[in-house]
């Protein structure tokens, strides 16, 4: 049976969260990612989002994004976890922003302690243009947290660009992986230290599943069976081709379901 799929918030970056929820539902997704700016989310906004999810029969796969820095958690980051719990999001996506990796690890542990209290997993994503650059960095931080709320988020693009393969994912504890991101991409063409170029690629140059060169079938085999997939299709080409949010979400859903369905029949 194909993996459950969710529409990542980054597919529709120019639209409000309630438009994203509506578009995900109308396109046939069963779950959706939420872009949350805690300072702008009033209690009324939280209630409206929770009601929209319920009305459309959708779950929230994650809330993003928290950028971890050394020191005590800022109030907005603590509030992010609380909002995620209030709207029923299963995970909060976090990345490292501070070059002080021990400080980032401590901040991650603080987030996990709060996640345990709120019933939310804290999913750390590694990216070459962040301070948590590699899978090895992320493994050390997740393991060091020693928390049942600690999770590791795999993005096929970042996995490939950091020089890893599906076999490296297969070695991870399954309980660390409550969900994964999913997309395709062209062959790597940028230097590992070209942070500006890599960030632009991640935001604009992803491809629909099956239209790039990433080893997605092997990655699916390495991930836990039936793991939910957040379809992280950030693509300028898609944004230009489908300015309507429902049409864009539907294009992503069709391509992903076709790819996963073909694999299930193989």
Order of helices and strands: EHEHEHEHEHEHHEHHEHH
CATH architecture name: Alpha-Beta Barrel
Largest sheet descriptor: 8 strands, parallel
Given helix and strand content, the structural type is alpha/beta
| Strand neighbour order, sheet with most strands | 6-5-4-3-2-1-8-7
CATH class: Alpha Beta
Rg over alpha carbons: 17 Å
**Low-pLDDT ranges:** none
Domain module tally: 1
Strand content: 5-15%
CATH homologous superfamily name?
Divalent-metal-dependent TIM barrel enzymes
Summary keywords:
266 residues, alpha/beta, TIM Barrel, eight-stranded parallel sheet, globular
Tell me about this structure.
The protein is of the alpha/beta class and 266 residues long. It has one domain (5-265): Divalent-metal-dependent TIM barrel enzymes (TIM Barrel, Alpha-Beta Barrel). Helix content is 46%, strand content 15%. The chain contains eleven helices and eight strands. The chain has helices spanning 17-27, 43-56, 75-87, 101-118, 135-145, 156-161, 166-170, 195-204, 216-222, 236-241, 245-265, and strands at residues 5-7, 31-35, 59-68, 91-96, 121-125, 150-153, 180-182, 229-231. An eight-stranded parallel β-sheet has the order 6-5-4-3-2-1-8-7. Strand 3 (59-68), helix 3 and strand 4 form a beta-alpha-beta unit. The radius of gyration is 17 Å and the shape is globular. The mean pLDDT is 97.
Map the helices and strands.
Layout: E1 5-7, H1 17-27, E2 31-35, H2 43-56, E3 59-68, H3 75-87, E4 91-96, H4 101-118, E5 121-125, H5 135-145, E6 150-153, H6 156-161, H7 166-170, E7 180-182, H8 195-204, H9 216-222, E8 229-231, H10 236-241, H11 245-265
Parallel strand pairs: 1-2, 1-8, 2-3, 3-4, 4-5, 5-6, 7-8
Helix pairs in contact: 1-2, 1-11, 3-4, 4-5
């Amino acid at each position: 049976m194909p993996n459950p799929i969710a529409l990542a918030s980054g597919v529709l970056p120019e639209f409000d969260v309630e438009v994203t929820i509506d578009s995900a539902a109308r396109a046939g997704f069963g779950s959706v990612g939420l872009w949350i700016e805690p300072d702008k989310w009033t209690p009324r906004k939280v209630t409206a989002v929770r009601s929209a999810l319920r009305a459309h029969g959708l779950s929230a796969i994650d809330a993003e994004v928290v950028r971890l820095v050394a020191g005590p958690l800022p109030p907005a980051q603590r509030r992010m976890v609380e909002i995620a719990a209030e709207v029923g999001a299963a995970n909060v996506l976090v990345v490292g922003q501070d070059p002080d990796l021990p400080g980032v690890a401590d901040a991650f542990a603080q987030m996990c302690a709060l996640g345990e209290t709120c019933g939310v997993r804290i999913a750390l994503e590694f990216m070459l243009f962040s301070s948590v650059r590699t899978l090895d960095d992320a493994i050390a931080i997740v393991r060091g947290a020693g928390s049942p709320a600690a999770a590791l988020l795999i993005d096929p693009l970042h996995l490939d660009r950091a020089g890893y393969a599906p076999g490296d994912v297969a070695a991870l504890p399954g309980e660390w992986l409550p969900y994964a991101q999913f997309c395709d991409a062209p062959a790597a063409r940028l230097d590992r230290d070209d942070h500006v170029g890599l960030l632009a690629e991640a935001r604009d140059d992803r491809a629909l599943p099956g239209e790039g060169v990433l080893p997605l079938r092997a990655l699916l085999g390495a991930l836990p069976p039936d793991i939910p997939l957040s379809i992280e299709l950030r693509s300028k080409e898609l944004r230009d081709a489908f300015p309507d949010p429902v049409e864009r979400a539907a294009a992503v859903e069709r391509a992903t379901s076709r790819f996963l369905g073909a694999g299930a029949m193989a």
